[in-house]
Amino acid sequence: GGTGAHGILIDGDYLIYACPPARQIFWINKQSWKVKATWPVPGNRPHDTSWTRDRKTIWSSDSNLNAFFRHDVKTGTIFERVQLPDTSPVIHGAKLVGDWMYFCDDMGWMARFRI
Q: Higher-confidence residue: 90 or 5?
């Protein structure tokens, strides 16, 4: 079975979301549903996305890799990887708030770290 969109963000006329079966992040026009761009992701289970404060990069996460990736918004190029320890909750949902990345797993645990 497949899954659908994860981690939806808005950028003007576009929705940005991670799609686990496609292993990509999509930019889709909200009116026409035409795809503006796609970026490949490093893992097979992308889960959530979050803007950085300057909105020049986006953090994505991968649940199977248990890592975060910072992408350039123009090209999708990955600038940075933050690997969580094996003992941390598995990333399910995540949002950057100030200098803190908050994330939860699918079992009810919540955690944060300074980014």
A: 90
